[in-house]
Predict the structure of 8-oxo-dGTP diphosphatase.
Amino acid sequence: MPVRLMPVVAAALIDADGRVLLQRRPPGKQMADLWEFPGGKIEPGEAPEAALVRELHEELAITVDPAALVPLTFASAGLGERHLLLLLYVVRRWQGVPQALEATALAWVEPAAMRALAMPPADVPLVAMLERFLQIGG
């Protein structure tokens, strides 16, 4: 049976102290109350980078130059009839102060501390990749 691919983009926004911004999923949504990287679905005909710039503006009220997006890694996970393909980008430069427009909370978290947070299954393997990237000075 063919699966329906669901491409999604996410950002690891990294502040000057090396902390990463996570947001808490709101009640009523699938995987409510879990901490996740901000981002969202890629619309048909939309480039991944354009989708991430749009999602960060919609979710956090920040402006990101597509040139500031650095592809890091991806995750692949089955979700019933759909299959999630999650593309993670590192972002170190943006305009504005992130605000929780759709999430119930935002938190700046040390990469090692992310392991203790409840996160969606697709986000979990991204944490180790992000930690390694930051340890080598990425």
